[in-house]
């Protein structure tokens, strides 16, 4: 059981580290938004693994709130990017 915890910790830590690198170096806002989603998914996976191993159902509302936060954040960023893209196209059409 201890080895399993070590493997889970290493894998989630590697995913989080790579995601933080993309968050810092990402050239676009979509890269950064995706890295935040991966960080949130890693946190959800870690909390879920903790809850499963300790048979503790009290963290399920936290998992629900985190997943809802990730969904709302992704939708918000995609709407923001779509609006910026649409405004840029309208400006190009008006200039020509």
UniProtKB/TrEMBL annotation:
Pfam assignment, any one: MrpF_PhaF
Domain of life: Bacteria
Membrane topology: Multi-pass membrane protein
Gene Ontology cellular component terms for the protein in this record: plasma membrane
Protein name (record): Cation:proton antiporter
InterPro entries: MrpF/PhaF-like
Keyword Calcium recorded: no
Cell membrane in keyword set: yes
Protein family per UniProt: Belongs to the CPA3 antiporters (TC 2.A.63) subunit F family.
Any one GO molecular function term: sodium:proton antiporter activity
Compartments, as annotated in UniProt: Cell membrane
Keywords: Cell membrane, Membrane, Transmembrane, Transmembrane helix, Transport
């Amino acid at each position: 059981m201890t080895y399993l915890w070590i493997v889970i910790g290493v894998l989630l830590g590697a995913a989080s580290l790579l995601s933080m690198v993309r968050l810092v170096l990402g050239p676009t806002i979509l890269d950064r938004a995706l890295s935040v989603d991966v960080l949130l998914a890693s946190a959800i996976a870690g909390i879920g693994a903790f809850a499963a191993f300790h048979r503790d159902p009290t963290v399920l509302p936290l998992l629900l709130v985190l997943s809802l936060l990730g969904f709302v954040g992704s939708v918000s960023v995609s709407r923001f990017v779509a609006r910026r893209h649409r405004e840029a196209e309208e400006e190009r059409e008006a200039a020509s």
